[in-house]
Amino acid sequence: MKVLTVFGTRPEAIKMAPIVKELEKRENIESIVAVTGQHREMLDQVLKIFNIVPDYDLNIFKPGQTLTEITVNAMLGLEKILDETTPDVLLIQGDTTTVFSSSIAAFYKKVKIGHVEAGLRSGNLYSPFPEEANRKLTGVLANFHFAPTNSNRENLLKEGYNDENIYITGNTVIDALKYSVKEDYHFEEELLNKIDYENKKVVLLTSHRRENIGKPMENIFQAVLDVVHENDDVEVIFPVHLNPKVREIANKYFENEEKVHMIEPLDYLPFSNLINKVYLVVTDSGGIQEEAPALGKPVLVVREETERMEGVLANTAKLVGTKYENIYNGFKELIENKKKYDEMAHAVNPYGDGTAAKKIIDILEEEMN
């Protein structure tokens, strides 16, 4: 069986790396890896960490590229790869423009499609944008829906998908964490080694979503700032996204704050190990909502909707939106209310046990034979 795995961004690479590694173990599978390069530098970092050398690299990244450019360039490149490799099945993960483009390209060639992390839904087609549309459109074309959780399966059933094509596997991000996190990890960024994680309540902040840029992000930063000023034992580590608009707002609020450490974006390995060391996470990102609970860290989700409601329902994450008062109150509670913090820190992670990649490839082998 020929399996073509395609990904293009850092989050995709992290979640597909365990699958690529599992495919490499199978003697009866020919594994072909293609990357679009939708992200460039951040993608390359993950490839290096997991020691993955792509067979094909479309290298489509251009500064300021539009969604249309990404879609068209990825499809054109993938068409050639599909013609050359003639795979039995295409494996794609998540909700990026690379995923959408790959599914269309494979559909046109009548290649079967396996969608890893299927069934996530926020319920709002424009939030997150364009990810919500990407995953719904990909679902229409997929033959195998690898859903991380039962609620993801329920989402797909509500949309009319056949239950026989839906498989609950857990999330491969947990597989990747097991590979990455070490208790004795030493950071290259010396500042991160000097922080007192034992005696301080160190908070990891990430914020970069398109829909939060502007007033929502200002609300997030102001609320974080106010809680930091009110609590002597709180420090914040903020890897600042490369987006100039994000950096402009971050500098406005945090430039002269001693207890808010703005650093450059981290590679996957130090970032995972940083999650393991901090007290809690404040984020508008997606994958961190899955990773942090696996390491016993409560997550404050600063978005209006999340497609990862399992964490909210399991009490590993709290969705507070982007209004100042809600962010401030939610953050303050987790810092000052030990009982509430412990309830979240010790809740059971709903995203699996770290064997998702093996389950997915076992299913493919059984179903494709």
UniProtKB/TrEMBL annotation:
One of its GO terms (molecular function) is UDP-N-acetylglucosamine 2-epimerase activity. It is an enzyme of class 5 (isomerase). Keywords: Isomerase. Its EC number is 5.1.3.14. Belongs to the UDP-N-acetylglucosamine 2-epimerase family. Pfam families: Epimerase_2 (PF02350). Residues 21-365 form the UDP-N-acetylglucosamine 2-epimerase domain. It comes from the Bacteria. Signal peptide: none annotated. InterPro entries: UDP_GlcNAc_Epimerase_2_dom, WecB-like. This is UDP-N-acetylglucosamine 2-epimerase (non-hydrolyzing).
